[in-house]
From TrEMBL, chain A:
GO terms for cellular component: plasma membrane. It comes from Pelagibius litoralis. Keywords: Cell membrane, Membrane, Transmembrane, Transmembrane helix, Transport. Belongs to the binding-protein-dependent transport system permease family. This is ABC transporter permease. It is a multi-pass membrane protein. Pfam families: BPD_transp_1 (PF00528).
From TrEMBL, chain B:
Keywords: ATP-binding, Nucleotide-binding, Transport. CDD domains: ABC_NrtD_SsuB_transporters. It comes from the Bacteria. PANTHER family: ALIPHATIC SULFONATES IMPORT ATP-BINDING PROTEIN SSUB, TAURINE IMPORT ATP-BINDING PROTEIN-RELATED. This is ABC transporter ATP-binding protein. Pfam families: ABC_tran. Belongs to the ABC transporter superfamily. SUPFAM superfamilies: P-loop containing nucleoside triphosphate hydrolases. One of its GO terms (molecular function) is ATP binding. Coiled coil: none annotated.
Length: 308, 277
């Protein structure tokens, strides 16, 4: 009887739950919930030793529930609770004008501008290298190994030195950070475009030959359009690592501005809440950038007749 | 009507009396060096195609028909013998855009609409946009694809895609047409229709056509000369002159003359096969 009563209304809206799970939002919600639960558990577990130490030093009585409550409200926790981070985000995004040096939006914009500049330069460099490699035999043999070798240098480790050196010869601000981004993101573009520009099948190339088309015509009418899907796959990787490059480039700038600077300041003063807020902002930025790339990709591919 | 008949006659006469060789092949052979064993695709091929000829290659699968066509088109290079196209080397002929090639597969560019696929050679050859439009419309109509201009290749059936590729080869109106099984993927009725269209186009324009097919009736119906090839290594075992009246229609296929020629082609193919085993 009771089960029927419970089952009754859900039967009248049979689609709701199953629809939520059939789509993408259902599973996503479950994953988010799981992350929150784990995060809260982690907060208590990681912060507990510090608190217990303090309780014992002060000869205080403590209970598990009291401990859990305190663990989620520490000023400099090892791991801040989600609501603390949300509160910090609220404070530093919504409560401040975007021009304020304490606004995360301001810092995000600083990082974003060098990300985009570096991305544009890296994409351009990547495409130019790929075009050269595909068309000039000697470049294929001489350049490609260097392109690959370039990525074995741990740029994340030497980026600070690069910034300092460039700063000494007069390059400061946007450009050095963008250079780090460019260095990281030209690589996937080159690799993807070399593959893409070589992707036309032999028959499609033969067709151009029967028209005795020039190299330039073959490039614009055949190689370039065939490479577009490869280009977008590379660009999605490139824009994400371009952001990483910009943040890394900001770490040694004497903590002036940018997400990287916020991370650095946070770790100087043990402001874990601020660090996490900056991290989440960076993650959201990366997500939005990749999603935007995906949107442009769909638009372009639809215009060039890809199957829906 | 009368005028048209006169014009046709006139053109047929000039084509007949000129007998200018367009393709001359002497002792041509071609061996593909592959990883395991060399493949002897063509051996000692001798052939002359005159201006205005409609020459069909017929022969078992894998006998080298495509290969021969590709040598003529300078897409493949012979390993022995000589070949000239329009009196010059195939390469020079290709550079002069002497021929239109219909591949065995459609080879359309998937990011271009049907119409823009047909316009591709016209763009490359630098025609004005008005001219491109007009030609694309004309030749898409010719292959019965009017109304499909804005579709993308994947929205068409295989046979329709092949017809687009035929329209593309016709669009820049080359004097020499190289067609590799252009109607292989079509149903019988469409095939009949396009056979007739191609025959009329050939009569009207006096183009030289080199045509690969597996169908004996198609070869007899269309050709002025049928070249029968043997299995690998491809060699020519018979060249059959086949001058059915110029005003032949699909019904001519029931005539005795037609049956006789078809019989001779079949005998040639049989003889070729017995070479093998
Ligand atoms: N690029 C190549 N490399 C090696 N062998 C090849 C190559 N192209 C063709 N061949 C071989 O040459 C022979 C002739 O091939 P070809 O494509 O000319 O045959 P075909 O007469 O057109 O056959 P079909 O009627 O099936 O189209 C075949 O045995 C094939 O395996
Ligand atoms: Mg073939």
């Amino acid at each position: 009887m009771t089960t029927e009563a419970i089952a009754g209304p859900s039967k009248s809206t049979p689609g709701l739950l199953s629809r939520a799970f059939a789509g993408r939002s259902g599973p996503l919600a479950v994953v988010c919930l799981a992350i929150f639960v784990l995060w809260y558990l982690g907060t208590v577990w990681l912060n507990a030793p510090l608190l217990i130490d303090r309780y014992e030093r002060e000869g205080q009585d403590w209970s598990i529930t009291g401990l859990a409550g305190d663990a989620m409200a520490m000023e400099r926790p090892i791991l801040p609770a989600p609501h603390q981070v949300v509160e910090e985000l609220n404070k530093s995004i919504l409560q401040r004008s975007v021009t304020s040096k304490r606004s995360l939006i301001y810092h995000a914009w600083v990082t974003l501008s060098s990300t985009l500049l570096g991305f544009a330069m890296g994409t351009l460099l990547g495409i130019v290298l790929a075009v050269g490699i595909v068309h000039v035999n000697t470049l294929d043999r001489s350049l490609l190994p260097w392109v690959i070798a370039s990525q074995t240098i741990p740029i994340l480790a030497i980026a600070p030195m690069v910034i300092v050196v460039l700063g000494n010869i007069g390059f400061t601000g946007l450009v050095p950070k963008a250079l780090i981004s460019m260095y990281l993101c030209f690589f996937p573009v080159t690799i993807g475009m070399v593959k893409g520009l070589r992707s036309p099948d032999p028959l499609q190339m033969d067709l151009m030959r029967t028209y005795s088309a020039s190299k330039v015509q073959v490039f614009w009418q055949l190689r370039w359009p065939s490479s577009v899907p490869f280009l977008f796959a590379s660009l999605k990787v490139a824009i994400a690592i371009s952001l990483v490059g910009a943040i890394v480039g900001e770490l040694p700038t004497g903590a002036q501005a940018g997400i990287g600077a916020r991370l650095l300041v946070g770790s100087y003063y043990g402001q874990t809440v601020q660090i996490w807020a900056a991290l989440l902002t960076a993650a959201a930025m990366a997500g939005m950038l990749v999603a935007a790339m995906g949107g442009i990709e769909r638009l372009v591919l639809r215009r060039s007749g890809a199957r829906p | 009507m009368a005028l048209e008949a006169v014009m046709q006659q006139g053109e047929a006469e000039t084509a007949g009396s000129a007998a200018r060789p367009v393709i001359e092949v002497e002792n041509l052979s071609l061996t593909f060096e592959t990883a395991d064993a060399p493949v002897y695709a063509l051996s000692e091929v001798n052939l002359t195609v005159n201006a205005g000829d409609f020459v069909s290659f017929i022969g078992p699968s894998g006998c080298g028909k495509t290969t021969l066509l590709r040598v003529i088109a300078d897409l493949e290079h012979q390993t022995g013998g000589t070949i000239s196209v329009n009196g010059v080397s195939p390469e020079e002929a290709r550079r002069a855009r002497a021929y239109g090639y219909v591949f065995q597969a459609p080879a359309l560019y998937p990011w271009r609409t049907v119409e823009r696929n047909v316009m591709l050679p016209l763009e490359i050859m630098g025609m004005t946009s008005a001219e491109r439009q007009a030609r694309a419309a004309r030749y898409l109509d010719l292959v019965n694809l009017g109304g499909f201009e804005k579709k993308f290749p994947w929205q068409l059936s295989g046979g329709m895609q092949q017809r687009v590729s035929i329209a593309r080869a016709l669009s820049f109106e080359p004097d020499l047409l190289l067609m590799d099984e252009p109607f292989g993927a079509l149903d019988e009725i469409t095939r009949d229709h396009l056979n007739e269209q191609l025959l009329r186009l050939w009569e009207r324009t006096g183009k030289t056509v080199v045509f690969v097919t597996h169908s004996i009736p198609e070869a007899v119906f269309l050709s002025s000369k049928i070249v029968v090839m043997s299995p690998r290594p491809g060699r020519i075992i018979d060249v059959i002159d086949c001058n059915l009246p110029a005003d032949r229609t699909l019904d001519s296929r029931e005539s005795n003359e037609f049956a006789e020629i078809a019989h001779r082609v079949r005998e040639g193919l049989r003889a070729g096969h017995s070479y093998d085993d």
